[in-house]
């Protein structure tokens, strides 16, 4: 059997078990509607203009947050990666800021920034800066000194070493960081919309479906769309990374 | 002298930033941004002004912080058991991941907070709902990393074990799992920070106690110093849990020849 058929078989088996569990009454269909209902609802939603507008609002917030996070984290990572003194001095700050769960900042963001799209973008930037920053710094500290020395002994100046040796070496690691951040940022955008009650977005749609009489079919349909978007983004970036950095092993060996 | 200068190098900028924050907050007098000293005072009143019999800890420590920590550890431990167990099984099977791989990749991409309403009606308000949210959100990094790690057992190791006719149980526990350990630990740290996040989220949406509930409650009654105190507590918890797990990892992976390869990235989502 080819892997693609096994993929399909796995999916169909999962949906079948779900459908059967609900139809047999193991799970209350008020709480979790059967798979067939949820999938039909998902397809219906994708044809609705209002819902598509929500999807676009979420994806737009995600795209802005990603661009901003890359714009902040890559230069900062290059700076901290190439200046060990500065890196030691800022480690304590970074190590303290990084583990603060960004959801803990949701109440603060609502108060200071407001309930508009700026809040979710700001929180998504905060969450997605760290993986990129970390991977960029990591790439620079792990560079093989032999490569630098070789370039130097061939007469390369500092700028040339940076451009021809250090940056190509760091690029796959940075890209892995960006891929991880992309997933985090999307989850954060949708979560903020859901928890803080933004005016538009997939999270807002799910929130409305929850509070408006507990329409679990709509909640699950919205969740499936959010999951599909995340899957497609990750898959697309993985393929892009594989194509861009075919010469490098970091894209295939890096975990998660 | 060396440790002292090292300490100064590491922490001087941090303390400088805190002092700067203190001065800026005092000058600006913005109600949203209280100075750090006020936050510390509030934290002291919130948690350390209890009776001497309780080691000066207040009721909030016992009613909010400890239950929250219990949920984080409980949910995370379930995720570890499920993730490592299922991951070992799937990693050893030749075709297992073909069947469930795309499904798991999709589920990992689902934002866990949006499933809170579903868990809320399935388990009603209470600890099982929070555990379900934490387990669902944090199991994927462990599971997928375990699969990866189990598959990274080298051919030499496998052939050596085979030629010694190593019993199966011994093979899995003494060869496969240790070889997979660096990858598993990378997943463990990622999922512990996710568990902390999901604890906060599930308590924000449906709870009557816990850190997340107190945080959103402080915001709703415009008690900004208290809100900041809870945020700082979450930062300290995140830092502490990560440091704890790192220490365990260092001890357990001492024998690994290439420690650099196992360094994983954690996110602060």
Automatic annotation (TrEMBL), chain A:
InterPro entries on file: MetI-like, MetI-like_sf
A Pfam family it matches: BPD_transp_1
Location within or outside the cell: Cell membrane
Membrane topology listed for this record: Multi-pass membrane protein
GO cellular component, one term: plasma membrane
Predominant location: membrane
Transmembrane segments: 55-80, 92-115, 121-140, 184-206, 218-234
Entry keyword annotation includes Hydrolase: no
Secretion signal, residue range per the UniProt entry: none
Keyword field: Cell membrane, Membrane, Transmembrane, Transmembrane helix, Transport
Keyword Transmembrane helix: yes
Similarity-based family: Belongs to the binding-protein-dependent transport system permease family.
Classification via PANTHER family: ABC TRANSPORTER PERMEASE PROTEIN MJ0413-RELATED, ALKANE SULFONATE ABC TRANSPORTER-RELATED, MEMBRANE SUBUNIT
Protein name: Nitrate ABC transporter permease
Organism encoding this protein: Prauserella muralis
Automatic annotation (TrEMBL), chain B:
Keywords, comma-separated and alphabetical: Cell membrane, Membrane, Transmembrane, Transmembrane helix, Transport
Gene Ontology cellular component terms for the protein in this record: plasma membrane
Domain of life according to the entry: Bacteria
Pfam families per the UniProt record, alphabetical: BPD_transp_1
GO aspect biological process, one term: transmembrane transport
Main location: membrane
The keyword Transmembrane appears for this protein: yes
Topological type in the membrane: Multi-pass membrane protein
Transmembrane segments: 12-28, 73-91, 103-125, 169-188, 194-216, 228-248
UniProt KW Metal-binding keyword: no
Location in the cell: Cell membrane
Family statement: Belongs to the binding-protein-dependent transport system permease family.
Protein name (Swiss-Prot/TrEMBL): Nitrate ABC transporter permease
């Amino acid at each position: 059997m080819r892997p693609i058929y096994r993929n399909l078989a796995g999916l169909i088996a999962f949906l079948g078990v779900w459908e059967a569990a609900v139809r047999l009454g193991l799970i209350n269909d008020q709480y979790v509607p059967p798979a067939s209902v949820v999938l039909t609802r998902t397809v219906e939603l994708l044809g609705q203009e209002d819902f598509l507008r929500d999807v676009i609002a979420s994806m737009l917030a995600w795209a802005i947050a990603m661009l901003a996070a890359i714009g902040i984290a890559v230069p900062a990572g290059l700076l901290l990666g190439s200046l060990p003194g500065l890196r030691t001095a800022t480690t304590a700050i970074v190590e303290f800021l990084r583990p603060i769960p960004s959801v803990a900042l949701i109440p603060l963001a609502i108060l200071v920034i407001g309930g508009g799209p700026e809040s979710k973008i700001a929180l998504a930037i905060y969450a997605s800066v760290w993986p990129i920053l970390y991977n960029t710094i990591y790439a620079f500290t792990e560079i093989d000194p032999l490569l630098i020395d070789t370039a130097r002994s061939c007469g390369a100046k500092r700028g040339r070493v940076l451009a021809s040796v250090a940056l190509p070496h760091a690029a796959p690691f940075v890209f892995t960081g960006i891929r991880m951040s992309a997933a985090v940022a999307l989850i954060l955008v949708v979560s903020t919309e859901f928890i803080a009650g933004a005016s538009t977005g997939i999270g807002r749609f799910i929130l409305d479906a929850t509070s408006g009489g507990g329409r679990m079919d709509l909640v699950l349909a919205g969740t499936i769309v959010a999951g599909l978007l995340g899957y497609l983004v990750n898959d697309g970036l993985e393929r892009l990374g594989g194509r861009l950095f075919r010469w490098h092993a970091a894209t295939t060996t890096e975990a998660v | 002298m060396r440790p002292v200068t090292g300490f100064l190098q590491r922490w001087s900028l941090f303390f400088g930033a805190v002092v700067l924050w203190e001065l800026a907050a005092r000058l600006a007098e913005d109600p949203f941004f209280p100075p750090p000293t006020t936050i510390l005072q509030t934290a002291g009143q919130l948690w350390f002004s209890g009776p001497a019999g309780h080691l000066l800890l207040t009721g909030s420590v016992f009613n909010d912080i400890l239950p929250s920590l219990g949920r984080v550890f409980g949910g995370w431990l379930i995720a570890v058991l499920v993730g490592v167990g299922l991951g070992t099984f799937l990693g050893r099977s030749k075709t297992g991941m073909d069947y469930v791989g795309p499904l798991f990749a999709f589920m990992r991409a689902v934002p866990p907070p949006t499933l809170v309403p579903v868990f809320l009606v399935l388990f009603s308000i209470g600890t099982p709902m929070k555990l379900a949210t934490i387990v669902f959100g944090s199991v994927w990094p462990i599971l997928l990393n375990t699969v990866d790690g189990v598959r990274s057992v080298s051919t030499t190791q496998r052939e050596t074990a085979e030629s010694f006719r190593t019993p199966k149980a011994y093979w899995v526990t003494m060869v496969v799992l240790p070889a997979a350990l660096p990858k598993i630990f990378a997943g463990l740290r990622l999922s512990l920070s996710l568990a902390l996040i999901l604890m906060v989220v599930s308590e924000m949406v449906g709870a009557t106690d816990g850190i997340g509930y107190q945080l959103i409650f402080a915001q709703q009654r415009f008690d900004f110093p208290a809100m900041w105190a809870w945020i700082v507590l979450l930062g300290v918890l995140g830092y502490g849990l990560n440091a704890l797990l790192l220490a365990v990892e260092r001890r357990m992976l001492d024998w690994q020849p290439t420690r650099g390869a196992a360094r994983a990235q954690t996110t602060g989502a």
